[in-house]
TrEMBL record:
PROSITE patterns in alphabetical order: HTH_LYSR
Domain HTH lysR-type: 4-61
PANTHER family listed in its UniProt record: HTH-TYPE TRANSCRIPTIONAL REGULATOR, TRANSCRIPTIONAL REGULATOR-RELATED
UniProt KW keywords: DNA-binding, Transcription, Transcription regulation
Protein name: Transcriptional regulator
InterPro entries assigned: LysR_HTH_N, LysR_subst-bd, WH-like_DNA-bd_sf, WH_DNA-bd_sf
Signal peptide from the UniProt entry: none
GO MF annotations in UniProt: DNA-binding transcription factor activity; transcription cis-regulatory region binding
Family: Belongs to the LysR transcriptional regulatory family.
């Protein structure tokens, strides 16, 4: 394969795809003799007869058909490589790393990202999920370009765009508690029952307390979908985002025990990025899109 030219491969591909040297020459904006010479040169270098020229229209030989399939892959890979080089030269990111936090209303955020990246096919979205302290830790450790999560508004290293508020509701399954939940439920009454908690994915977990009832039995799960399943099956109780359990509450599959002693909690979901590092053109475009207001979640 030494000395095989991309030009010759493209000429062969055009002839194989269009069925004639004349049609290939027109598609490539080249002369008929130059295309003919390119294919002949390729066959000589390979030691293969790729085209059957005996009929009215040229056709692929068996070897030519097999080689053509591989040649098309090589041509596409080269086009991808050229696009990649163009992105590098222009400073446009080939990949954007985004982390979703556990407080995010995922359907809205994923829809937002889908619409944005559909218009930017040259940049690949690398998407991860982290819980509790994991998203901001990944951001600060240089492993993410943008996170959707809660963040300390006073942190000078971070800038944020508030997107929406998410209410967290303490819930149980019907029959989980042996007493009337219409009364104001106290922590003392809940202490004998297993509380389900989200597991902190940070390598350096924070000491911040997220709904933890001191002295209660507990179990941990990686995300709110698993937490919801445990609570629905009467294996535990805990706080869940209202967007996830609206139907469960309305249809009686879950019961809120929010009250004066065990309140719910409202978290602000924000887009968060580092203030102290440069951002590429795609990351900046996404940031401007979020600032514009049309992307904000209800």
């Amino acid at each position: 394969m030494d000395g095989v030219k991309l030009h010759d491969l493209r000429c062969f591909d055009a002839v194989a795809s269009r069925g004639s040297f004349q049609a290939a020459a027109q598609a490539l904006h080249r002369t008929h003799p130059s295309v003919f010479a390119a294919v002949a040169r390729l066959e000589e270098q390979l030691g293969l007869t790729l085209l059957d020229r005996s009929g009215y229209r040229v056709s692929l030989t068996d070897e030519g058909r097999l080689f053509h399939a591989r040649a098309q892959l090589a041509i596409r890979e080269f086009e991808h490589l050229r696009t990649y080089a163009g992105q590098l030269a222009s400073g446009e990111e080939t990949m954007l790393r985004v982390v979703l936090g556990d407080v995010c209303p995922r359907p809205g955020i994923l829809g937002l990202l889908s619409r944005f990246f559909a218009e930017r096919p040259r940049t690949r979205l690398h998407l991860d999920y982290e819980a509790i302290g994991g998203p901001v830790e990944r951001l600060m450790d240089g492993e993410a370009d943008l996170v959707f999560h809660r963040a300390n508004p006073s942190d000078p290293h971070l800038e944020r765009i508030d997107l929406c508020e998410v209410a967290f509701v303490p819930v149980v399954a019907p029959g989980f508690l042996p007493f009337d939940t219409r009364n104001d439920v106290t922590p003392e009454a809940m202490r004998p029952f297993t509380q389900c908690l989200i597991r902190d994915m940070a390598r350096r977990p924070s000491s911040e307390n997220f709904f933890v009832l001191d002295g209660a039995h507990s179990c941990s799960v990686p995300d709110h979908m698993m937490k919801r399943e445990l609570i629905l099956h009467g294996l535990a109780w805990g706080h869940l985002p209202e967007w996830l359990i609206k139907d469960d509450l309305r249809e009686g599959r879950l019961i809120s025990i929010a009250g004066r002693h065990i309140p719910g909690r409202v978290e602000t979901v924000a887009a968060v990025r580092r203030r102290d590092k440069p951002h590429g053109p795609v990351a900046d475009a996404l940031w401007r899109h979020l600032q514009g207001g049309e992307a904000l979640l209800s």
